[in-house]
Amino acid sequence: MNQNFQKEKNLVLDYYKALDKAEGDEISKVLSSHIGKDYIWRGFHPFNEQSDAEELSKFFWQPFRHAFKNMQRRMDIFIAGKNQIDGFESVWVVSMGHLMGLFDNEWLGIQPSRKMAFLRYCEFNKVQDGKITETAMFFDIPHVMIQVGLTPFPPQTGAHLVQPGPMTHEGLLFDQQDAAEGEKTLASINFMVEDMRDWKHTNELPLVDELRRSWKEDMIWWGPAGIGATYTIERYAEQHSGPFRASFKDRISNGHLCKLAEGHFGGFFGWPNLTLTPTGGFMGMPATGKPGDMRVIDMYRREGDMLAENWIFIDLLHFWKQQGVDILERMAQNPRN
What average pLDDT does range 125-138 have in this prediction? Predict the structure, then answer.
């Protein structure tokens, strides 16, 4: 049982090759030649939604490339698959890793270090008729802030790291894969999502026992800056899952726009995935009583029938801005904090 996504994968790889070597206005030309009509690009705050190649180039790509000189795209996961959300009709290609460069010029008010810096990213590209027609590119801006010595949030519960890729070093699926493996991975992801929906086991099972239904004992949760990474079920429950559940009410699931898997890897994104009301404590922040949206990408590695690793991208700048805290503005006013 094989599914062939080589045409779509090669199109995205060619796009990356052209984009990564382009400079200045050449970036606009690369975007225009690879994206389709009615294109939509979804990115984290302050970039949000873009639909025009030239605007995307001038608003995001050119300033970023001016700031991060000699950029390298260092991919850890590269997969493709059909989207469960639209009945497995559309094909998407997913890339995850870091964009690394010499942080030589200011970006978003963040002052440069003139040292290596990494932008964690994950990107979903929908490919139709030889063009990219939708993109979700989520990236960890607070992670860049911490690398240059800023403290955008109170101390996080997990560890701050430049995060590695899969422990198995097998995330770059450039070649054709056995569809059965992807189906197993998607089933494991779906079981976990349904099992935790509405935290339905909260009053039935201890949290660690609930997590053991979906996760390997030595699982790793690679969370965003402001929360951090955590290792083993017990520490994940202590350092993220437990505090997260205790810090919100009125959890609303908004669903996903894309969910897919290939081989032992899979993931999804939403716009937004969740709407939550903080009750206080999450990321050291007070209660606000205001519902807020979370835009999230989750990427997973399956081992056997269980999930082993999970990389998370959350638009925390957008979430806290909805709560009345503008992290970018605060950093600009206090550049040494």
Answer: 98
State both tokens at 79. Answer: 């997969």
Domain with 99, as residue range(s), is 2-147
Sheet-wide strand order for 215-222: 229-231, 215-222, 306-314, 296-303, 265-269, 258-262
Domain CATH for 19? 3.10.450.50
SS3 category, 239:
helix
Residue 305, domain member (yes or no): yes
Q: Does residue 322 share a domain with residue 211? A: yes
The structure's pTM equals: 0.95
Q: Whole-angstrom Cα distance, residue 11 to residue 285?
A: 43
Alpha-carbon distance 34 to 18, whole Å?
A: 10
The pLDDT assigned to 335 comes to 67
**What single-letter DSSP state applies at residue 241?**
I
| Average pLDDT, integer, range 304-311 | 98
pLDDT at residue 292 in the model: 95
Residues 143 and 198 both lie in one domain: no
| Bridge-based pairing state of the strands 131-139 and 116-128 | antiparallel
